[in-house]
Amino acid sequence: MTLANYFDFVILPILTLSVVLVFIRLFKGPAIVDRVIALDLIITIGIGIITVYSIRQNQKYC
What is the 3-state secondary structure (H, E, C) of the chain? Predict the structure, then answer.
């Protein structure tokens, strides 16, 4: 398995599933603290998705 296949079939689906689960927590959170933490976690997972995409597309930083 190449690194590109690993990104496509393992890492990105896990990140996608985690975003879905965190969105559920964001909407159903019993307290405002849960919703704030979920929003922070969505931002962190988004950075991870952008990082994986950059590595996958061989993007160089500026």
Answer: CCHHHHHHHHHHHHHHHHHHHHHHHHHHCCCHHHHHHHHHHHHHHHHHHHHHHHHHCCCCCC
Token pair for 48: 């991870």
pTM for the structure as a whole: 0.84
Written as six digits, the tokens of 16 are: 């996608």
Per-residue burial over 35-56, b = 16 or more CB atoms within 10 Å of its CB, e = otherwise: eeebeebbeebeebeeeeeeee
Query: What are the backbone angles phi and psi of residue 29, rounded to the nearest 5°?
Result: -55, 130
What does each of the 62 residues of the chain score in pLDDT, given as a tens digit?
888 889 999 999 999 999 999 999 999 989 999 999 999 999 999 999 999 998 888 877 66
